[in-house]
Amino acid sequence: MKKLRKSRTFKGKLILSFLTVTLVSIVLLGAFQIFQLYTLVKEDKEKQFQTTVFLDDYIDNYIENYQHVVEMLAFSIEPLFVERDLTSIEKQLEQIKKNYPGFINLYVGNEAGESLVFYPKLYTDGVKRENLDYSDRPYYQELKRTKQPVLSSVFHGRGGTDMILVTVAVPILNDNNDMIGYVLGAFDLNALADDIKTRIDDEKRFAIVLDQEDNVVVHPNVDTRKELVNLKDARFVQTLSQLPTKNSGDYIAVENGEEQYFTFIKNEKIGWKVWIGTPTKYLSDTYEDAIFTVLLFALLTTMLMIGVSFLFANRFEKALQNVLRYIKQYKDYTRGLNNKPTFQPSTKGTREIVELYDHFGSLIDDVEHSRNRLIKLNKDLEDRVKERTATLENKNLELKAVNKLITSVSTERDLTQFIQHCLIQITPFMEYSIHVIFQNIAVTPKEITAIEDVQQYLNSRIVGKQHMEPIQIGKNLQGFLVVDLNNSQTINTSEQEFLETFASSLAIMLENKFLFEKIRNKHAELEAILQSMSEGLMLLNKKDGIEYVNDFFQQIVFSDTNYKVLDLEDMYKRFMELFQISKEELQSFIQQDESVLKLERKEGNDKVKSYMLHSFSVFLDDLIIGKGLLLRDITKEAEIDTLKDNLISLTSHEFKTPITNIRGSVETLLREDVEWDPDFERELLVGVHEDIERIQHLVSDWMDISKIESGTMFIERNMVRGDQIIEKSIQQIPKELQNQLEITFQNKLAEPVYFYGDKIRIQQVLLNLMMNAIRYNDQVIKKIAVTLDQSATDIIISVKDNGIGIEEDHLEKIFTRFYQVDVTGTRRTGGTGLGLSICKGIMEAHHGKITVESERGKGSTFTLFFPLGEEGV
Fold first, then answer.
1. Cβ contacts of 183 within 8 Å, gap of 6 or more
2. How many CB atoms lie within 10 A of CB 572?
3. Helix 635-669 vs helix 678-710: crossing angle, to nearest 10
4. Cis omega before residue 120 (within 30°)?
5. Distance CA 118, CA 109 (A)
């Protein structure tokens, strides 16, 4: 038995309890008192700061009032000043002096700083005033520079006055905002200082006010009527300058020979600073007195409570010792160490003690009776517990087995492996062998067997007696749970219930597995469909979170971002970066249902990609569960539309011009009122013939491209000689285009070379390339270099020019139908954009190819490859 540590006596604990209650009460009372003192001191500090704010507002209003008077005076006398009506100006000065006696001096002067009018005429000591020049005063120089009202620093008045003054200077401006004069008003600050001192309602506190140059306006130790004191080197001013930059606050610094608690405000408008100070000793003395009082009260109360608790403890201790003595004797009796003791109740003490003895005696009798009954009940309980424990152990094993059956259906195991895994989990809890017959498959913890005849399997594998439980999924019987019992084993009612529960649990797990596999397959099919879409798809939930993005959308919008950590705001940002669209447009678009938005994206090579964004709502059982965005790449469609528009424009132009020429020539020849010269008539007919050939050429291009597209272009294959076909093509260049044309042909082959091809179609390709080299050339001397060469597999013909060239991003598209690099240039030179497409079709019909290399401003090189041998045709 663990040895108990020595405990305190009842008397000691009672005294300790009294002392604890007393000390806790004193501590709480003292803490409350200190908290109240802290609150009062805090409120006092806040009151001091509010007084500082009040003084600052009062000073600001005082200065602003006088400044406003001077500003209004400057505005009102501007017409009088322009007319030099000094008499009227002086009357206004006199009126202001009467209304605002705080003004000591009022001056009006010109732009040079010289005063012209002043009031009053005499100083306060009776000396007559004279006009003064203020041009050398700093505040006048600032006034002239800024053309804004200026407040001077504090100074003593002239002529023996004991007043401290401050001056407000205001410019007089004309309609062009030019300064033509000034108004200067000096007003008394002594009245302000006296009023500030009277507003401090606490004898411990004092106020300090300094102007923008740290000259004293108010200070408890400075008589401003006798001297002008500057305190920029005072410790409390230096301490303020070292504080973090702010316009108000509090700090502690030394002033008047002792440590002070200051609250301050910097008036940014006029540059003055206001302090209110309180000696810190008043704050500390309050706390010290409170703590001393609490400690003294605690000491006296503690001594008193020790005496009182000692008296009470003695009385209780004697009665309790008597009870404790009997309990020890009774304990020895229960152990058989002595006879049953006799309890002697006490008749002395308080009524509660006497009642305690009586009840304790009765309790001893009840305990004795209950002890005998408990011994008998304890024996009965032990027998019942043994029986119940055995039953619970069996149930526990069954529950463990069923619990092991519960496993995740999301495992990668197939159905038979899943059943075997379940059997392996419950094998440690089974006393007999279990087989599962399910869909012509027999599963045991050790093997999986495909069977054709269930009865044959049972006869060959079941050694003892068979017990079968059906495995039913829904209303369909799917299999059996077969128990192999030896001759000595039987199944009681409890085991029967367990096997039924086990079979039902297995059926539920298998049904869940069926459903999971079905849902997973459906999900995989849906995922494959969405990922293989040629459009981008993004799904948003009702909280605007991104739930799904397929590969196409990911590549276009989130190519460098993990969309799973993004929300709708991130999508807005990506769309604004990629498609030059505002957030408001996107929000308005997404809020609409079944809406469409066209987007364009510029890539690095100035290539424009076009997209169509569709917005739609996602429904589940007629409830909107989110939004969907479908992104389609319509760049090809946009390009085709552009090409079609260009085609219509170009073909209408190409057909309209020759038809107009033909109509004009025919109408001219049909005029009966004029007899035309035969040469002129022939010239018109030649022009009509050329225009007809031009139309015929356009029709031929259309027929050729149509044949190429339908795969019906006929190639008459014959053995042709490479150098001769090039020379014939050069000869077909119109003579009018040969002016300033330098064309060369270089045959790199030592012997004539022959290959299979359509002579007419090859000449058509070469002539088209050379005509393009002439048309798209701005050089004075247009150069074309044709080269014939041969590789191991091909005859190679190249056409090189010094024309305008083609930009790199257009090279892949020039062989597309109707595509033209420069529509304006094409209109100038003629063409429909079908020539190179026809050339490509003819080369492919020869089982050859055409390539191009070009550099803007330096020219292009087109190369034709004709395969050698008849098999290449």
1. 70, 73, 74, 77, 106, 107, 108, 169, 170, 172
2. 18
3. 160
4. yes
5. 9
CA 525 to each of CA 530, 531, 629: distance values in angstroms, whole numbers, following the listed order: 9, 10, 21
**What integer is the mean pLDDT of 303-332?**
71
538 pLDDT band, cuts 50/70/90, is confident
Helix or strand holding residue 721 (H, E): strand 718-721
Do residues 149 and 170 touch, judged by C-beta distance below 8 A? Answer: yes
* Model confidence band, residue 124 (pLDDT cutoffs 50, 70, 90): low
- With contact defined as beta carbons under 8 Å apart, do 471 and 480 qualify? yes
- Residue 616: name the closest of 581, 590, 597 by CA: 590
Q: Is 200 exposed, middle or buried (0-12, 13-18, 19+ CB in 10 A)?
A: middle
The angle at the Cα of 101, spanning 98 to 107, to the nearest 5 degrees, equals: 80
Provide the pairing of β-strand 103-110 with 179-188.
antiparallel
Rounded Cα distance between 797 and 789, Å, is 6
733 vs 749: CA distance, rounded Å: 24
Beta strands (DSSP E) in 219-289 are 248-255, 258-266, 273-279
- Tokens 């390539």 -> residue: 851
Are 128 and 137 in contact by the 8 Å Cβ rule? The answer is no
Each residue's pLDDT tens digit, 490-534:
777 777 777 778 778 777 777 777 787 788 878 777 777 777 777
* 216-239 tens-digit pLDDT: 888 888 877 778 888 888 888 888
CA geometry: angle 163, 260, 41, nearest 5 deg: 115
Question: What's the pTM?
Answer: 0.38
SS3 state at 17: helix
CA distances from 422 to 3, 485, 824 (A): 52, 20, 79
**What tokens appear for 544 in the block?**
């605007």
User: What average pLDDT does this structure show over 628-642?
Assistant: 78
Beta strands at 608-620 and 595-602: parallel, antiparallel or unpaired: antiparallel
pLDDT in tens, 326-383: 677 667 666 666 666 666 665 555 666 666 666 776 777 777 778 778 878 888 888 8
Residue in this structure with the two tokens 């062998």, named with its chain if needed:
433
CA distances from 257 to 16, 236, 597 (A): 51, 11, 79
Residue 762 to residues 163, 199, 699, 705, Cα–Cα distance (Å) = 114, 111, 19, 15
Sequence-separated (6 or more) residues with CB below 8 Å from residue 479: 436, 437, 438, 439, 470, 471
HSE at residue 857, side-chain half, CA atoms within 13 A, is 0
Contact 608, 600 (CB under 8 A): yes
